[in-house]
Amino acid sequence: MVAAFGFALMVAMIKLAGERLPVSQILFIRQLGMTMILVPVLVKSFPGVLKTTKLPLQFARILLALVAMLCGFTAIINMPLADATAIAFAKSFFVTIFAVLILKETAGLYRWSAVVVGFLGVLVMLRPGTEGFSIYGLMAVTGAASAGLVMVIIRLLSRSDSPNTILAYQAIGVGLIMAIPAWLQWVPPTAFEWGLLIAIGIVSFFAQKANIYAFSYGEASLLASLDYVRLIYATLFGWLLFSELPGLSTWIGAGIIVVASIYMVQYESRRKHRLVSDPTERL
Question: What angle do helix axes 90-98 and 109-126 make, rounded to 10 degrees?
């Protein structure tokens, strides 16, 4: 729940900064800020904080996180905030799919039904074949799929690596990759924009850390469905900051997605599904 609020606040600030600054610059400074917050930990425990037994998974997480953020940030900047956030909820359904395929978690008929219904909600929002359809909607879906796979990889990594190690690889790796594009497209920020960029880095760090702790102890496909509260925050921020109110297709599609997510939580609760797993479990 804390991570959900933090991510909603982060995307609102990204949309504000993106009115004039390129996505590459926003992403680079965000990662730089997260890395600077990690400096005391990196210095204190170096080189141990970078020790991992799953280096290929760390690299995969970096690349997928990069795709998720580039596509997601671009969609956020160019779409109404509530629309981009609602489509991003498809992440929880992608998590279910990848958790079954990769983590070998069990998903019965009811959960698969919720996934199918959730994707129908996404289609209602994307409105393919109509004038309302845009490439930014597809980018939002691509970002959601990449983010869903990242969540499953975090679940795997958390069995052997500490949260600080997972954060360090992501913050440093994405930052290094984005350094050159950011330099080539650099736009001098105003004082207000610098404040936004710094705040984005700080909020991102704490939201990511809360998210990693949650997925370290809970089942990936179930915890992801709790993220739906972010739509409430996004709608509020969109209204207050950008005078945006969701259209009819957004309300209908988002409603379908949220209902499907809530249904998964309620169904698993009725089954008394184990929300907590042994944190000492190792692959």
Answer: 140
Closest CA to 255 of 132, 122, 92, 93: 122
Number of domains in the chain: 1
Residue 78 structure tokens = 């160019």
Closest CA relative to residue 2, chosen from 268, 266, 205, 272: 205
Q: Is the peptide bond before 47 cis (omega within 30 degrees of 0)?
A: yes
- The C-alpha atoms of residue 242 and residue 260 are separated, in whole angstroms, by 28
Q: What is the rounded CA–CA span in Å between residue 195 and residue 192?
A: 5
Taking 70 as the pLDDT cut, the residues of the chain under it are: 48, 128-132, 218-227, 265-283
Give the rounded distance of the alpha carbon of 61 from its chain centre.
Answer: 12
Let me know if residue 277 belongs to a domain: no
For the segment 199-229, what is each residue's pLDDT rounded down to a tens digit? 988 888 788 788 778 877 766 556 656 667 7
Q: Could you tell me the pTM of the whole model?
A: 0.78
253 inside domain: yes
Q: Is residue 278 part of a domain?
A: no
Q: Which of 218, 191, 210, 230 is nearest to 277 (CA)?
A: 218
Structural domain boundaries, residue 52: 2-270
